[in-house]
């Protein structure tokens, strides 16, 4: 069974994410500027363990959606549910990763990873052990006493991963996380993310504007149109797992990329 089929089989049970008829409006920048409707009537369901990519042009509302799932902002209409409960605010059950890795420059890598549990008064020996283990998993076992400025871009990303994963999130929300990396580091991070997902099967909502990245990573790609943001098409990526960069050269991959690109182009 492919992962898409598994995701569909899981869809009959409890969805991990449900976005139902969501509307989000932002006030104009000045008093006279009109309000801006960022999203309207937006629907999306994500199955447990699914890797879903959100793809769309700049300004179509991808970050707005992710911020509502993270609990940083709230819809003006409709519902945003995670594990069948309305999102009311941020929580450690949802790990958020941005383009710029969020690390405190004055804390060592290990202390960055332990920051969340410590702030929630949950720092015990077991959590500390898990943090050390996670740093090994992300290849930073030898860098745990280093400070963020001593790390390369890719290492910083992996430290930010460990910082999120130590909370054992049920949902990973990633907003163009590899957008600022050089091509070689980006491929390494994509491979790292796929290995991690293959192992733990955390539900992932991954925002990107890169067609190839969406097709390589996702079980499904939700192609969005903008002004206001809506679902343009949802495309199943029925390619076998595990996937790697070599798969991007197959005919099937090229066909899927074309299908995604056509859905994007239809919008204009
Ligand atoms: N805090 C905000 N205040 C005003 N307008 C916003 C705010 N956040 C987003 N917008 C507007 O909402 C639309 C969607 O933005 P965003 O979700 O950031 O798009 P994307 O992430 O797809 O590039 C854009 O027109 C943007 O200008
Ligand atoms: Mg964005």
From TrEMBL:
* Species per Swiss-Prot/TrEMBL record: Pseudofrankia inefficax (strain DSM 45817 / CECT 9037 / DDB 130130 / EuI1c)
**Listed PROSITE patterns:** ABC_TRANSPORTER_2 (PS50893)
Q: Which UniProt keywords apply?
A: ATP-binding, Nucleotide-binding, Transport
| Classification of source organism | Bacteria, Bacillati, Actinomycetota, Actinomycetes, Frankiales
- GO molecular function, a single term: ATP binding
Domain (ABC transporter): residue spans on this chain: 17-251
Gene3D superfamilies per UniProt: P-loop containing nucleotide triphosphate hydrolases
Record's protein name? ABC transporter related protein
Q: Name one Pfam family in it.
A: ABC_tran
Q: Does the keyword Mitochondrion apply?
A: no
């Amino acid at each position: 069974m492919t992962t898409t089929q598994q995701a569909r089989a899981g869809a009959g049970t409890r969805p991990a994410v449900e976005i139902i008829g969501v509307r989000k409006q932002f006030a104009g920048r000045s008093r006279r500027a009109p309000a801006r409707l960022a999203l309207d009537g937006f629907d999306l369901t994500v199955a447990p363990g699914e890797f879903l990519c959100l793809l769309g042009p700049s300004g179509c509302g991808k970050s707005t959606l992710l911020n509502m799932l993270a609990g940083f902002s709230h819809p003006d209409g409709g519902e945003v549910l995670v594990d069948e409960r309305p999102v009311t605010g941020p929580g450690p059950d949802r790990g958020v990763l941005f383009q710029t890795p969020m690390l405190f420059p004055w804390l060592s890598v290990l202390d960055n990873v332990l920051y969340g549990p410590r702030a929630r008064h949950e720092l015990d020996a077991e959590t500390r052990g898990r943090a050390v283990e996670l740093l090994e998993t992300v290849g930073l076992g030898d860098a745990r006493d280093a400070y963020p400025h001593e790390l390369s871009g890719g290492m910083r990303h992996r430290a930010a991963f460990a910082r999120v994963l130590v909370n054992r999130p049920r949902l990973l929300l990633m907003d163009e996380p590899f957008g600022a990396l050089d091509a070689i580091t980006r491929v390494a991070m994509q491979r790292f993310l796929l290995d991690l997902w293959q192992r733990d099967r955390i539900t992932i909502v991954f925002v990107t504007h890169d067609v190839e990245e969406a097709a390589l990573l996702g079980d499904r790609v939700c192609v969005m149109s903008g002004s206001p943001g809506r679902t343009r098409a949802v495309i199943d990526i029925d390619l076998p797992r595990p996937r790697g960069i070599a798969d991007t050269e197959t005919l099937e991959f090229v066909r899927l990329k074309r299908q995604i690109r056509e859905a994007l182009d239809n919008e204009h």
